[in-house]
Amino acid sequence: MKLCLTDCFPVMSIALVAGVILGPVPHLRADSASKINRESRAALRQLYSTTPAARQLGDTATAILVFPSVVKAGFVVGGQRGEGALFSSGKTVGYYSTTAASYGLQAGVQKFGYALFFMKESDLAYLRKSDGWEIGSGPSVVIVDKGMAESFTTTTLKKGVYAFTFGQKGLMAGIGLQGTKLTRIRPD
């Protein structure tokens, strides 16, 4: 009789991590709208205070989707989840969840936030019309790192969606947004 520990570990890990972190996504209970709104606005203010390039981009963006707290955990197989608010012209116009699963050389737990700056109405329209937008399958997303943030101007950044990550804490290396699914939610 053959034990399944070595052969089945990746499959069991995928099922366990996906079940615990992502859960049955439609049945997850969202935080209250006021809590998501309050935390998203605070996170955006913090991002603006530490990254002037984000403030500059925010002044010209059509909308900004902010996920103030995304938790990522994994051991070979990982997952991440968070909730955030979509702002346009200073008003909250929607609430979204972000989920992702990953497989590879990884171990640990990490918490971070990210903000997506939609530069054109057509990119925002794609988010609104899709039934769960998976980053990598729609408008192009450019992750703005410190080097890029120091060298760009608003005249050079006009296309697509720009992502800033912030507030990384924990013991897991790297942040990737590929394969991340954004889904509109109705918080309590």
Description:
The protein has five helices and six strands. It is an alpha+beta fold. Helices cover 31% and strands 39% of the residues. The longest helix is centred in the N-terminal third of the chain and has 18 residues. Strand 4, helix 5 and strand 5 form a beta-alpha-beta unit. The protein has one domain. Strands 1, 2, 3, 4, 5 and 6 form a six-stranded mixed β-sheet that branches.
Can you tag this structure with a few keywords?
single chain; 188 residues; alpha+beta; 6-stranded mixed beta sheet; 39% strand; globular; disordered N terminus
Care to give the gist of this entry?
The chain is an alpha+beta fold and 188 residues long.
As residue ranges, the low-confidence spans are 1-28, 149-156
SSE ordering: HHHEEHEEHEE
Q: Give the distance, in angstroms, between the N- and C-terminal Cα atoms.
A: 50 Å
How many helical stretches?
5
Structural class: alpha+beta
How much helix is in the residues? Answer: 25-40%
Summarize the helices and strands and which ones pair or pack.
Blueprint: H1 5-22, H2 33-50, H3 52-58, E1 63-88, E2 91-118, H4 121-129, E3 133-134, E4 141-143, H5 146-151, E5 161-170, E6 181-185
Parallel strand pairs: 4-5
Antiparallel strand pairs: 1-2, 2-5, 2-6, 3-6
